[in-house]
Amino acid sequence: MKAAGIAEGAALPKSRSGLEEALVAMDGVAVAHVEAFCCEQGEPILYVGILERGTPLFEYRPEPDGEVSLSEEDAGAYAGFAAALGRATSEDDLAEDLTAGHSMMRNPDCRAYQLRFAEIAEQRLENVQAVLARAADPEQRAAAAYIIGYAVNKRVVVGDLQAALRDASPSVRLNATSALRAIAVLGRDKSLGISIPATWFVEMLNSVVLADRLAGSRTLNLMYDEFSEGTMAQIKERALSSLFEMARWRHLQHALPAYLLLGRVSGVAEQEMAAAWEASERDQMLARIEKLLKPVTAKKK
Predict the structure, then answer these.
(1) Are 41 and 134 contained in the same domain?
(2) Using CB atoms within 10 A of its CB, is residue 108 exposed (0-12), middle (13-18) or buried (19+)?
(3) How many domains does the chain have?
(4) pLDDT tens digit string along 108-125?
């Protein structure tokens, strides 16, 4: 990072766009994304996402340009919920129940809006689906991505939410991820026939955006007790480099999901992974996993 004028312990860059332009100007860099996160021991962390040419890319779908929109009343309900959620967050009142396949929060203000979303999804589902897929306004799509998770028939909306995981707007991707996590809780009842492919969560691990990588790694750990052969192959083929990078991040809360995923992919017992983590032997464990996966990584090179 010295080539881009970034040094450990220095002040954050004054211009995010300027730094991203400097990074893209470097040889071999196709895309760059920079963001600050607070905090590690009171100091901000600068995450620098770089996509090198020839490496796996998490591609967004084209921005839609449709004029479709939620009704003023329905959009207002989502705006009200966002404000209530902000208050609940400041009060650390975020407890929720996902057993119905969607979030029902303990906070009364948030819960009242969520009950309203269930009514909207039942009465105007086609409009919500259309907004999520075609609305030009990303705020409208983000609202639709949240509301659609309250549909009575979860199987019907899984495809809509899977497509939204590739939306160009981070807020749409985040809401779609949250909705799918909740649906996965309901889907543990196999008689319901709810199937959520892991494909796009794996691809998120290659994103230059921090939120995507965290969403991908956390969701893969939370939603899938077991990986299919196809998912395991996809992780090994597409995401190992990203996982090792993430597992070595200094901010432990962000590094842990990728660390645990590597344990699952390599076949190291969960208890061993946890013991190494607690003993601050993360680097030693990652070196062991690299040796276990050496035939895979060698093949990729």
Answers:
(1) no
(2) exposed
(3) 2
(4) 999 999 999 999 999 999
